Amino acid sequence: MGSAQFAIGIDLGTTNTALGAVRLDDDVSVPGALPVPQVVAAHETLALPLLPSFLYQPASSELPDGALALPWDAQRTFAVGAFAKDRAAAVPGRVIASAKSWLCHTGVDRRAPILPFGAAADDDVPRLSPVEVQARLLRHLREAWDQAHPEAPLGDQQVVLTVPASFDAVARALTEEAAAQAGLSNLVLLEEPQAALYAWIARHGDTTATPWRKQVKPGDQILVVDIGGGTTDFSLIAVADDGAGNLTLERQAVGDHILLGGDNMDLALAWGVKQRLSDDGREIDDWQLRALTHSCRAAKEAMLEDAALGESTVVIPGRGSKLIGGSIKSTLTRDQVNAVVIDGFFPMVDVDARPAQARRAGLQTLGLPYAHDPAVTRHLAAFVRGQRPTAVLFNGGVTRSAVLRQRVLDVIAGWGGGVAPVELPGADLDLAVAAGAAAYARVRASNKGLRIKGGTARAYYVGIEKNELAVPGVAPRVDAICIAPRGMEEGAEANLSMELGLVVGEPATFRFFASSAAAARDTDVAGSAVDVARARDELVELAPIEATLPGEAGAVLVPVTLRSRVTEIGTLELFAVEVATGTSHKLEFQIRGD
Hints:
Helix content: 10-25%
Radius of gyration: 26 Å
Low-confidence stretches: 321-325
CATH architecture of one domain: 2-Layer Sandwich
Structural class: alpha+beta
Mean pLDDT: 86
CATH class of one domain: Alpha Beta
Largest sheet: 6 strands, mixed
Number of strands: 29
Strand content: 25-35%
């Protein structure tokens, strides 16, 4: 990456994808968004700030040849972006949306061709995996960038790709796999709420009229509320003083994965329209409901952004050859949007409110595992657990609505005796994550500027079984080797020079331990050892990892050394590097919240 000229941030969102950039030799400018060329109509392309995360695959006779051509690909036969999003209301069976939500769905094979989900078996639309859809979106960004910057290919730049704070290890790995398929192998993952905060810091630098250091003070708790199309994420960032009069930021907590966002609101509105049509004797099928959902999305966004708009028309395409003549029109009113979206998804709740947990049926239809309770504010109450955020930074397309932002502030104010938290003025809510990721990429490359702290809360150890003579009734002794001292920061690595034997080619169990007391011990140093039996009161054993590492079955132990790394998204990676070949085997586990 020595030839990198740009710091790049990519927000691969459920509803929209964006790309932010700033030159690495520019320490002052706020990262900006790169307009992305995309098909907006047949034979028409336009560069837009956002690339909608939709993929459209037309039938062979649906469009004339070359209708989906791009400046860099005259033979393109599918479309991602604005045109794909527009086609969703007319031909929902040929449009793939919310692939990011499917990427984190543990109940399906995410490498299998399952999208568009729910399409009829006899449809001729090609099926794609969630990983492939994400790869195509990222490949489109790379191609657009490379055409605009042939002297600085995207794959050679400092690239940071954002993911929800709540993504599990598999979803993160699949995101990296999709990026690699798109030609972006050298990148770093960053949590979306943190990226939004980096964007706020970059926009309110020390030379601006409203520097961020003047907007917060030591002791403040910044709540990042990120509500996008498919997910809701909460993060809590503490403001502290480093003892020398400088403010620091430290991540305190990250919320659970909540598959709840704008998609749920669109579906709820569509069901309301469907019921009203049914009451009038007009029934629509599941295919038409999907089209109606996309139409409701556009109507909802229009009314939430324009307070003067009292109602909006939604159109449901007909079935069969006479699609136009058979279409059905209905309306969404502001009262309906308020009742469903504001009161249904953002109700006023007490601080001790918790999400409802519905008993699951033994048999269910397949689909995305949406949150059982649609009330975002109840999930928020469960996250803060009585704490009083003093400032709120909003992010995500849903929070573009001033009405929804104010409702969240009002709910939090009710928890604090009527004292409302300060709303931090953010950047563009659609582009902040991409811009913030680019800002972080610049900080990371230069090692200059503020970084949000979030070092390990405990020291972490891996269990090493001693090779000793077997004694009846006595289990082999185990040493715990420190692989991450307490406070080890994101991006930091530790190399352990000791040579160990690694089991490959057959199932093996890897034991891990953690200790909060280790900060006061001399064993809280990478590579130091402690006897597990003697330190039983100080070590807490974590869930083991069962793995079969590649290698010849039944082979002798392979000599390895260990290397550990704490990632920017709160995982601890342990690499066992073969001494003879340099081959690396990786184990990974989540340490956030310990």
